Amino acid sequence: MSRPDHPRSVVVVGASHAGVIMAERLRARGFGGSITLIDRSPHLPYQRPPLSKDWLGGEVEPDTLALRSEEYYGDNGIELLLGADVTRIDRQGGGVAIRIRHSHVRQEARRFDRLVLATGARARVLDLPGVDHPDVLVLRDLDDARRLGQRIRRGPLAVIGGGFVGLEVAATARGLGTEVTVVEAAPRLSGRAVGAGTSDFLLAAHTELGVDVRLGTAPVEIVVRGGRVRGVRLADGREVPAATVLVGVGAEPRTEIAEHLGLVCDRGVVVDERCLTSDGRTIAIGDCTVQEDCSGNRVRLESVDNATEQADAAAATLLGADLPRRPTPWFWSDQGPWKLQIVGVVGADMDVVVRTDPAKPRRRVTLYFAGDALVAAECVNAPADFVAVRAALSRGLRPSREALSDSAVPLKKLLAALPVN
Question: Which of 339, 388, 346, 347 is nearest to 364 (CA)?
């Protein structure tokens, strides 16, 4: 009988980035017990960020998407059960019942000392006339990306939603020569993710690419004529042409298992800094979770960075080790020739310093200050500045706006001159 703080068997439901990295971290920390990864997808666990960019654009081969080779799992004693639905979980008895779907359906069960939920999120859908037509797609997984890839050159593409995924697909499609319209109900692109200045910059960037951006108007109908999608009718009465419609209006966390287990959920599975859920024992990591930020607000961080950091923390928790220090969260989005990198969380009413260079019009850095201290940055085509700011924030430096306002001096040089607290 294993002690509660020394598990001998770990079952992870969900084998995307968070689940795979956590299994890897457990082995790296010397965990010698059994690890089972269960996922409903039949595909070897793969990277998702390239799906809307390089993979969709035909710049990478499908077999390069794998997070780890098939041999890796066997070599490291990690059992990988793909195409498997979890049908029952018995926490008191420490067991997971699953149904395996491959060449034939069979029932199996796995025992566990500790259970990890890495169930991810699904694409949010819209309630519109015509939205269930086969020409209307979402983009969340590899099968979605394959369907979109087969259609992306078949005529005009309408993207509903001006968030990161929608803009990445729009830029990729334009690069393939497709006519693209982006419809966003809000008055700004990516308004919940970036500040007004960066949003305006992205609008100009996509307009330059030839994307027709419609802001401040919502779709009311997917127009179908002759059995095919022909367009999207907007609330202002106009219709934009479309042979394919991509709905990119965000994602919803998969919380069904957590709710069935009676765990506290609030737009995601609520976890603490150790990735423990409300029962104090079950672990949850990745896109399905919400956690408190530095202001005490519950936030859901849907990013590879967060999945990795939570996987690290979860592995430490399971082994009773000290938690690794979590750096400031960061995100990125590649939209055609524009690389947007964000570090920190931008809040309302923050002071802003914008650093631009007339000789480099496609480059822009926006620094955000809470009071007089730097807390976040948005960098477009400025990877060196992003690295400098991220390193400074992760070291606990909080430079003032006065210290960083001189745009004529490289940001790296200004930050290096600051004293360490």
Answer: 339
